[in-house]
Fold these 2 entries.
Entry 1:
Amino acid sequence: GAQTVDRRVDSVCPFCGVGCQITYNVKDEIIVSVEGRDGPANHGRLCVKGRFGFDYAHHPQRLTRPLIRKPGVPKDPALLSHQGDWRDAFREATWEEALDFAAGKLKDLRTCHGDKALAGFGSAKGSNEEAYLFQKLVRTGFGSNNVDHCTRLCHASSVAALLEGVGSGAVSNQVNDVEHAELILVIGSNPTANHPVAATWMKNAAKRGTKIVLADPRVTDLGRHAWRTLQFRPDTDVALLNAMIHTVIEEGLVDQEFVTQRASNFEALKQNIQGYSAEAMAPICGIPAETIREVARAFATSKASMILWGMGISQHVHGTDNARCLIALTSVTGQIGKPGSGLHPLRGQNNVQGASDAGLIPMMYPNYQLVSNPQAHAWFEAFWQTRLDNKPGYTVVEILHKCLAPDSDPHKIRGMYVEGENPAMSDPDLNHARQALCALEHLVVQDIFMTETAWLADVVLPASAWPEKTGTVTNTDRMVQLGRRALNPPGDARPDLWIIQQMAARMGLNWHYPGPEQGVAAVYEEMRQTMAEAIGGITWERLEREGSVTYPCLTPQDPGQPIVFADRFPTADGRVKLVPADIIPASERPDAEFPQVLITGRQLEHWHTGSMTRRSAVLGAIEPMPTASMNSAELRKLGVQPGEPITVRSRRGSVVLTARRDDGTPDGAVFIPFAYYEAAANLLTNPALDPFGKIPEFKYCAVAVSAG
Ligand code: SF4
């Protein structure tokens, strides 16, 4: 019980973007339990990950010494599916030796091959301060803007559409605002698995009469609470959403005042939507026209309607178009800028909002200032007192392509620093991604475990787990929240912020931040100066006092704005821009050889590439092995019973998993979570990119499923 612990330390859950506040109960330097605190996003609630998924921090496989690859040991991606003993491939080193080697070789590569030879992947699992410092290291020390992180695999397309349409990539309304909604449209999202505490707000709203419309090719748990469930065919998002917009316009349900005063480009939208009647789209998306019309009417005429969406919208080659349709639907109905309305892209990782805000993206400095904007470029050159590249860098998938570029390519990437990400599991077409990582002349990986990516490194730097450091993270609701250090890192593992600074010093940068705890505050305060329009009023002292403050927050007295866009949009003309979208098919459609569709995603118990949750005893016990879900009819066709092995193949790879029956999975499709290294879903996925957000099409590719 709480009485018998040595200390209780307040922090934030390290998993999803809901941002539940927690207390770590520590006894004898071990976290013995986690309790939910009364934070603004969770009010004491936690899901199974937050409640039981803390023991990864004490796992015997934690990295405790810097490691250097032994001479002559080849980088072998074949090892990744069975994970041998890393001691065969690496030797332990001192920090001095490992850092000198890690940074020295990067510096040499830049000297020999120029400013484009290096790249860095930062992390949405780390703090804002780490994200800020990491992108500063790449831009000022590597010499290019080749810095990115997992937002590229997550909501990059949503953000592209939001920046274009409403002028801000963040949510307009917070999750718990669903209690003020009369209707919520949850599309391309499985919140009970991926944002479980956020889902409790939705279910409680439904209990009080809010209508939930669940639109998804997979019928998930939230369907039990839904007023209408639209199981539309995979890849037909634009058809469904355009049909809803068409209904609104045709049936005279447009909020004329809103459109006249606050939107631009309505005529173009109206023109384009003509071919998209509910009747014309019904056979494409597989939803009866009358149902599409009914839902569109209910959305338009309710007092307040809100849209929440996830990767089902964003992870397509038409992800940006999908999000454009959501913005248009919200805008033509005037369902934004008031309580219970608006646009909420549910953020995945606990700090993917904050890491993006802090500039961990190749085309923008902190606070979404375009690197190519002369004013922003000049401002940051003056602020950081150095020359900066004004060309956008490459994105995650592009960077991996550039690792395999011919020697003659002046943009060939030869050295990389990966902090807390696991592209050897998370990127599409893993055989290619792993080859790309192996092709690097120098790969530095900083992590807490020997991840699949670390296996391919030249140097591995042992970092600290979330309970071992103090820092801020920003949740899906724009809440900046403070997590405090509860433990010391094991062995010689070090805080990430310290490691980044050591790397910077050896790259020749002259940074002067004070020691550990004050250092975090100093970095935060520097970051705050670069993001005055967002977090200008959120001082470090205030975070220490209040624990959570919502931005935009402009002055120390400002309580923060939970709802934005009440009277203007932060676009150049103050209006929301309506951008028409047409149907673009998935990059790879089923055919005779690969007749089924693969949908990848997550499940409640396991987090992303599984490096943390699969090392948590409780979570591992609940979901111990890789499974592939299909509906009963599909399993019957294959002649496979649940629990039996099946093989799933695509043009890029093949995995063997256990069949699971899930009648919410659509006909002709198989669903695989991507957390399992033994049967990595991303060996199968297609690296085709959305042209605007540069996000890969994780939600649709052609596969062949067979028994055995
Ligand atoms: Fe953690 Fe998300 Fe679960 Fe909350 S809902 S406890 S933030 S994983």
Entry 2:
Amino acid sequence: KSKAQMFDADHMKVTFKDVAGLDEAKEEVEEVVDFLKNSKKYTDLGGKIPKGVLLVGPPGTGKTLLAKAVAGEAGVPFFSMSGSDFVEMFVGVGAARVRDLFKQAKEKAPCIIFIDEIDAIGRSRGKGSMPGSNDERENTLNSLLVEMDGFGTDSGVIILAATNRPDVLDSALLRAGRFDRQISIDKPDINGREQIFKVHLGPIKVDKSINPKELATQTPGFAGAELANVCNEAALIAARNNKPAVDMDDFMQAIDRVIGGLEKKNKIISPGE
Ligand code: ATP
């Protein structure tokens, strides 16, 4: 059985309103929403609707969120799977999962398939760093290529895939008719951070001294996921101190804590550097 998570159209409540900043990326994916909603308009004129769109950018910048919002805006089901879920030790499992995922998706079309960390299966063939597991990964990649070529552009299935390593992807994946479009999702600038704070401060009871712009100036280099984390940590810190509302002091502590967490994570990822 496929390990894909399936969300019905009724449960796709994420919309573009939930995605702060990323204005250019949103504009680009708006086209995808229209492809899903009005595919006939395009195919009647002989247009070929893209099958695959690659979302490229660092972790935590909202790629998954944006993909969900595309499904939410179009009112279609969302199938989600991580590239690493395809990679198994057992021969043939990855390829079978790919086939299964596409079979399910075609039955529910129009719909979105979202593949997070596509680089886990899409690394260029013959250059892998993990001996032994390579053939199996190549099989999985091949079956993904076969599935992508096997459905028509009018099938109503659009695949969004996310990566922060477009440079390692096999060029076969990027060829016309596959992931031939790329949208870059960058870390937010100060204005983007302010917008993201506005979204994530929404459910939080903040002191009236709290100003999203000021918070944005205090968080250079943070991705959206980290800003969301700051808001939640600040609320927890304030609550533990029995405060009636979250104030700037709590936010400053939360920012320190999130920076600390990031430093630890970096140490684990790159030992000895
Ligand atoms: P990864 O590559 O690590 O999977 P990602 O780019 O897919 O990361 P998301 O999973 O979409 O990032 O983001 C994690 C969470 O961070 C979101 O669920 C959301 O709460 C928050 N977030 C990230 N970016 C934004 C944004 N632009 N606007 C609002 N919230 C955001």
